[in-house]
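Entry type: protein chain
Record version: 2
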Amino acid sequence: EDTMQTLAIAALTALVTTAAGAQEPKTDDEKTLYAIGVVIAKQLEVFNLSPAEFEQVKKGLGDAMAPGKKPLVEPQAYQQKINQLAQSRMKVTADKNKAKAKEYLDKAAKEKGAQTSPSGLVYVPVSEGKGAQPKDTETVKVHYKGTLTDGTEFDSSYKRGQPAEFPLNGVIKCWTEGVAKMK
């Protein structure tokens, strides 16, 4: 674990300190190191760092990588504060996302034909099908496109070229509820 952390820190330090002048990775080794930097950056996303905060992270990385240099603070002594910072930043992000979601759902609930269930599902039929509605104990086959509230697509059975098939009661509640309304 310590070796992996050291490798990750080394890769991020190399990426951060040479990012301005670095050329695009060409060799497999360069691409691997670049990928490590991207993975580490994704892990840092939870902190939603400002540019000034990122400078402190870079200083810590640089100091940790410098041979014989003693860190200005001991990471173990700050582990609880690191966890608290991560939790508080995640809460801020979650609160923002909840507000956006509420705005999106409120708008959708006002669309023509919209039905809002007690669980909060907003169902807006685009075109009514014919036939029976599936029971939640049945297996369904669906083509779908999943998007975020900003329209960013995160999943698509269309792109995979085949519909998804699953027991209706084996997916998240809004899927069970929504698909059960379809014919």
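Comment: The CA atoms of residues 55 and 174 lie 42 Å apart.
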